[in-house]
Design goal:
Blueprint lengths: L1 H14 L5 E3 L7 H10 L4 E2 L3 H12 L2 H6 L1 H4 L3 E2 L9 H8 L4 E6 L2 H10 L2 H5 L3 H6 L3 H10 L20 H22 L4 E5 L5 H9 L17
Helix pairs in contact: 7-11
């Protein structure tokens, strides 16, 4: 444990002045693959882990500086997974880190929703406050709290769960709006800071490398966390 803490402290000194890279793609849209791409090309990347839960909790509290002050945050140059894709967080990051670059991959919203179901993300989080806030389902969440004595926030119990299958259009609308709004925001205020393309774009890694001004091997490809059917 001491060794890990020392390693983070040393690393943070070397990362502090480097431009940050944030992957702001929503979940199930190639975030882990982006993280692997960056790792493969020399970046120190913070992906899914205990720190992402801590950062997500701080985001929920509104303590954004608590995230940025953490030694773990300071020890990395690039970031993917939670909480970087949370609603409108990219706006704050854009101003907090003026030299930062942003990466956004998107996909067909029906395929995205199917992937969310396949990985049981919606099922396991349907009663979770943060999930309902992100996907604009707080009306259902608070209705259950106020009117269903058997509802326990964060706990799945079958018939008392907040529905998800019949809310496909709501999920898709949130997903599509997030992608469009993020793209339009950067187009208007900082077009040079955002790289975006479809997850199905066969040239995405080469284009991403060009955006970051790094060299990439011909034919490079990566696809992590692929759904097994």
């Amino acid at each position: 444990m001491v060794t890990n803490k020392l390693s983070l402290l040393i690393s943070s000194r070397f990362q502090v002045d480097k431009p940050k890279i944030f992957c702001i793609s929503m979940q199930r849209t190639g975030t882990t693959s982006v993280g692997q791409f960056l790792k493969d090309h020399g970046y120190r990347v913070a992906g899914y882990g205990s720190h992402s839960k801590v950062w997500s909790d701080l985001w929920e509290k509104g303590d954004y500086e608590g995230i940025f002050r953490s030694t773990v945050f300071k020890s990395y140059q690039a970031y993917e997974d939670n909480p970087w894709w949370f609603p409108d967080f990219y706006r704050l990051l854009n101003h907090r880190f003026p030299k930062a670059k942003f990466i956004l991959l998107y996909r067909d919203s029906d395929k995205w929703f199917d992937s969310m179901l396949s990985h049981k993300i919606i099922k396991t989080l349907t009663n979770n406050y943060r999930h309902n806030k992100i996907y604009r389902k707080l009306d259902l969440y608070y209705d259950r709290i106020d009117n269903d004595p058997n509802f326990v926030p964060g706990i799945l119990n079958g018939k008392n769960d907040i529905p998800f299958n019949e809310l496909k259009d709501r999920y898709k609308a949130v997903y599509e709006e997030y992608n469009r709004d993020a793209i339009e925001y950067f187009k208007k205020y900082a077009p040079e800071k955002l790289f975006y393309t479809s997850l199905e774009d066969k040239e995405k890694w080469k284009k991403m490398a060009d955006f970051l001004k790094i060299k990439i091997e011909e034919g490079y490809d990566i696809h992590t966390n692929k759904t097994v059917k």
